[in-house]
Design a protein that fits this description.
heterodimer; A: mainly alpha; 10 helices; about 0% strand; B: mainly beta; 6-stranded mixed β-sheet; 3-stranded antiparallel β-sheet; about 10% helix; globular
Chain lengths: ~160, ~140
């Protein structure tokens, strides 16, 4: 799969038809392809576009383990700092994830979730709420995104 | 791939002295690519219009050193990869007025003081709702 071409196609859909379902696209992606796509979108687009990508593809994103997230970051050879900034920004804006163990596991040493906005502030943020509505996410999906948990592998 | 952005002329605003500094793109590593799209708007009677309708959107904004205000998606796209801009962040525009602003920009990383400058500028130009929400992103 040509990652750049696929990412561009997906982002164009999210920009111009934000409410359109991505379920069919998602169903055709392997986990490895999804990791490649995430890595590409976060480092090349980043920002609000990166947020929207993760929101639309939350079903796949929430299944990634911390090891897979690290793999995704390691694939960012172009603008890793920007890609990681977008990933952490997504957690802080749209989820209740505030676990510094996640940051440490991802190799982020210069930030702490303790300085992030409190999760309860998210519900009243009109910009974030309008973004979620524009992407046609249901209340159940929004809840799933907010309550996602990092998946740490157990070392036996 | 994408349309060249255009914005609202700085001639329609006053109060640029409220901005205490220019914002510089955080690192050269951020250069080279960012797509996006513009939201074409005009200002009339203290309101933001999109065509013949009062604007309603939530997205990014930048104010260039040329004083042009641009709305749309992608700060680096909107600034046409400018090394420096006057201000950047996100807005929610409801019924032609700015109801929300924050300091979210990965490229220009405005701080709390820059956010307050933006609030003062938009209020000075009477472009905000009575219930403007100013959201400082700490992380």
């Amino acid at each position: 799969m040509n990652i750049e071409k696929k990412a561009t196609e997906i982002i164009e859909q999210i920009w111009h038809h934000p409410a359109k379902s991505v379920t069919e696209i998602e169903a055709r992606l392997s986990k490895e392809q999804f990791i490649d796509l995430c890595s590409w979108v976060l480092q090349y687009y980043g920002g609000s576009t990166g947020d929207k990508f993760l929101l639309k593809f939350h079903r796949s994103f929430i299944k990634l383990t911390v090891n897979e997230l690290r793999e995704m970051i390691n694939e960012m050879t172009y603008k890793k700092e920007f890609g990681v900034h977008t990933l952490l920004g997504f957690y802080v804006q749209y989820t209740y994830v505030r676990d510094d163990e996640l940051l440490h596991s991802l190799g982020v040493t210069d930030k702490s979730f303790s300085t992030a906005s409190k999760p309860e502030a998210l519900a009243d943020n009109i910009l974030l709420n309008r973004t979620l509505k524009k992407l046609a996410l249901s209340d159940e999906e929004i809840d799933t995104i907010r309550c996602m948990k990092p998946i740490f592998e157990v070392v036996v | 791939m994408t349309t060249p952005p255009s914005g609202i002329s700085g001639d329609l605003f006053t109060g640029f002295e409220l901005f205490q500094r220019n914002l510089t793109v955080t690192t050269d590593k951020f250069g080279g690519f960012q797509g996006g799209y513009p939201i074409d708007c005009t200002i009339k009677d203290g309101q933001i219009w999109s065509g013949s309708k009062l604007a309603n959107f939530e997205d990014d904004y930048v104010i260039l050193l040329t004083r042009e205000l641009r709305f749309g998606c992608g700060h680096y796209y909107l600034s046409e990869r400018s090394e420096k801009v006057l201000n950047a962040g996100r807005v929610a525009v409801i019924g032609g007025k700015i109801a929300y602003i924050d300091n979210k920009s990965g490229h220009y990383q405005p701080n709390k003081s820059d956010l307050i400058d933006a609030k003062n500028f938009f209020e000075h130009n009477q472009l905000t709702t009575d219930y403007l929400i100013v959201y400082h992103i700490l992380f």
